[in-house]
Design brief:
This protein is α/β, with parallel strands linked by helices. 42% of the residues lie in helices and 19% in strands. The chain has one domain: Spore Coat Polysaccharide Biosynthesis Protein SpsA, Chain A. The radius of gyration is 17 Å and the shape is globular.
């Protein structure tokens, strides 16, 4: 089974090498890596090329994922956020084995941040909630595995959604396939959003966005002022 790994990027020279190194160290080798870039002005593209990635123009995360999927050759698509820091060497092999064993069409996975204790606690709550609600209220964040035919049947991610497009995608695909939350070793991700934007502000934003989505549906206005790719500039000024 051939896997297409799709990564949306914008000025990710700091974190992208960590993710690509983790992928290259995987026991499973039958994959391609596609980087959908939204116009990086740093070394992101050069780094991606050095690791043998295929490059395509992207945009916001939803558009980047969709653009990557258009040129993907795999039977399965694995969408990864660019600021994932570490994947265990057996990650790909285990997720594909469990995905097949449970006869899934789409799956999400537990994520843990490289941050403070409060970050790990919040993410543990999120992971537990996602596991508990997987059969009736799917959640997907940062890492999503889906069959090609399901992705194309729902016409990909909704690019009009401003925040929470991954959760909306999980719920839309579940209408046409089987969703599962695969409890394997958590993926390690950066805590940069909390450090740059502020923990209280960011957690409150996500909580309110979740309530909005639950009661009113996808967020297609910019009421939560979602930002993408602004970490690079702030880090440069420090």
């Amino acid at each position: 089974m051939y896997l297409s790994i799709i990564i949306p990027t914008l000025n990710e020279e700091k974190y992208l090498p960590l993710l690509l190194q983790s992928i290259k160290k995987q026991d499973f080798k039958d994959y391609e890596i596609i980087v959908a870039d939204a116009g990086s002005t740093d070394r992101t593209i050069k780094i991606a090329k050095n690791y043998g990635c295929r490059i395509i123009s992207g945009g916001l995360p939803a558009k980047g994922r969709n653009q990557g999927a258009k040129i993907a050759k795999g039977d399965l698509f694995l969408f990864l956020d660019a600021d994932i820091i570490f994947l265990a060497p057996d990650f790909l092999g285990k997720l594909l084995k469990k995905f097949k064993k449970r006869s899934l069409d789409i799956a999400s996975f537990p994520v843990s941040p490289q941050g403070k204790t409060i970050d790990r606690i919040v993410y543990k709550i999120y992971n537990s909630w996602t596991d508990l609600t997987q059969k009736f209220l799917p959640h997907a964040s940062q890492v999503i595995l889906v069959k090609k035919e399901i992705h194309r049947f729902v016409k990909g991610f909704d690019e009009e959604i401003k925040i929470g497009e991954d959760h909306a995608y999980a719920r839309e695909t579940k209408k046409f396939g089987k969703f599962g939350f695969l409890g394997i070793k958590p993926i390690l991700t950066s805590a940069r959003r909390f450090e740059v934007d502020g923990r209280l502000k960011t957690y409150l934003k996500y909580f309110l966005a979740g309530l909005y989505i639950f009661f009113f549906g996808p967020i297609k206005s910019d009421i939560f002022k979602y930002k993408f790719g602004h970490y690079y500039c702030k880090n440069k000024r420090k």
